[in-house]
C-alpha cells in the first residue's frame, strides 16, 4: 500500500504587494503638459534676462566699435588700472564675505543651538529675510544718514561722548566703509543659508560622542565643524559672489571715488569720459567668470553638505 502524505502544503510565498498609490503618482500625458506650461514663464525669463544677455556680452567682448572681431578688449583687461579695479573688488568682497560668514555663523548658532528664548529665532529670520534684500540707493542713503560726516551716530558720538569718528581715520567713502555697508546684507544672508545646516546636525551624533567620553570641544572640532565646513565655506563663496557683483550700493555711496570693477564697468558703458562699450563687455565677461567659479564651487560644496544632512 502506498503511504499517503498528509503534511499540509506550505503556504505560497507572498508576491510583491502592489502600491496603491504608485499609479496615482505616475504623471499622465495631460499632467506633463500642464507641468511644462507651468515652467514656461521661468524658462522664458531665464532665456530673455540671463542666457541672451550673457551671450550678447560674450560676443561683444570680442568685437570693436564697428563689429569686427578683435582681442584688444581682452588684452586691455590686463592694464594696471583695470587690474587694480578687479583686485579692489576682490578685496572688498573677501573682507565682507569672511566677516559676514563669521558673524553670521555665531548669530545663527546663538538662535538655533544657543538656548536663547524661542521667540528670538522667528524674529531674527524675519529680519534676515528683509535685510538680505535691502541694498542699492536706500541702503547707501541709510548709512550716509547714520555714519556720514553729519550722520546721526556721528553727531551723537561727537556731542555726547566727545568722540570724533572721522578724526580716528574712519571714512564711510572708503574700503572699510563700503565693506561695513555690505555687511548689512551679508550677515543676514549668512544666517538664512546656515540655519538649515545647523538644524541638520543630528542629536544622535552629540549623544554618541558624549557616550564615548568626548568633551564639547572635541565634539565641535571632530564632528560638528567637519560636517558644517562645506556649508560654511560654500556660504562664504556665495557671499563673495553676492558682493562682487553689487553696483548700486557702491555707486550711490562712493560715486567714482572708489575704483571697483562694477563702477568702472558702468563708466565704460554709460559714461561720457571712459565710454568704450565693448571694453565694458569684456569687464563684464571677467566678472561672469569670477562669479561663475564662485557659484560653481558653492553648488559643489552644498551637494557635499547635503549628503551628511540626509
TrEMBL record:
Family according to the record: Belongs to the binding-protein-dependent transport system permease family. CysTW subfamily.
Tagged with keyword Transport: yes
Membrane-crossing residue ranges in chain numbering: 34-59, 71-90, 97-120, 140-161, 173-198, 218-241, 248-269, 281-301
Record's protein name: Acriflavin resistance protein
Localisation per UniProt entry: Cell membrane
Membrane topology, from the record: Multi-pass membrane protein
Keyword Cell inner membrane belongs to the record: no
Amino acid at each position: 500500500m502506498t503511504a499517503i502524505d498528509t503534511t499540509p502544503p506550505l503556504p505560497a510565498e507572498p508576491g510583491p504587494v502592489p502600491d496603491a498609490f504608485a499609479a496615482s503618482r505616475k504623471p499622465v500625458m495631460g499632467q506633463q503638459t500642464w507641468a511644462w506650461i507651468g515652467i514656461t514663464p521661468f524658462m522664458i525669463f531665464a532665456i530673455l534676462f540671463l542666457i541672451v544677455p550673457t551671450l550678447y556680452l560674450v560676443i561683444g567682448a570680442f568685437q570693436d566699435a564697428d563689429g569686427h572681431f578683435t582681442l584688444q578688449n581682452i588684452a586691455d583687461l590686463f592694464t594696471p588700472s583695470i587690474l587694480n579695479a578687479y583686485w579692489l573688488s576682490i578685496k572688498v568682497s573677501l573682507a565682507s564675505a569672511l566677516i559676514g560668514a563669521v558673524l553670521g555663523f555665531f548669530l545663527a548658532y546663538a538662535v538655533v543651538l544657543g538656548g536663547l528664548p524661542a521667540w528670538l529665532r522667528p524674529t531674527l529670520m524675519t529680519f534676515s529675510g528683509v535685510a538680505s534684500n535691502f541694498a542699492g540707493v536706500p541702503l547707501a542713503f541709510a548709512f550716509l544718514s547714520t555714519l556720514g560726516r553729519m550722520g546721526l551716530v556721528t553727531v551723537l558720538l561727537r556731542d555726547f561722548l566727545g568722540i570724533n569718528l572721522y578724526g580716528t581715520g574712519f571714512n564711510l567713502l572708503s574700503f572699510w566703509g563700503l565693506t561695513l555697508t555690505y555687511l548689512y546684507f551679508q550677515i543676514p544672508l549668512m544666517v538664512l543659508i546656515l540655519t538649515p545646516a545647523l538644524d541638520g546636525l543630528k542629536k544622535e551624533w552629540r549623544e554618541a560622542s558624549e557616550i564615548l567620553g568626548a568633551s564639547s570641544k572635541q565634539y565641535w572640532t571632530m564632528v560638528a565643524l567637519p560636517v558644517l565646513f562645506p556649508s560654511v565655506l560654500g556660504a562664504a563663496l556665495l557671499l563673495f559672489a553676492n558682493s562682487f557683483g553689487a553696483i548700486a550700493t557702491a555707486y550711490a555711496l562712493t560715486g567714482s571715488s572708489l575704483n571697483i570693477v562694477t563702477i568702472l564697468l558702468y563708466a565704460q558703458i554709460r559714461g561720457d569720459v571712459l565710454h568704450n562699450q565693448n571694453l565694458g563687455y569684456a569687464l563684464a565677461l571677467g566678472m561672469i567668470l569670477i562669479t561663475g567659479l564662485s557659484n560653481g564651487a558653492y553648488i559643489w560644496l552644498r551637494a557635499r553638505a547635503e549628503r551628511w544632512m540626509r
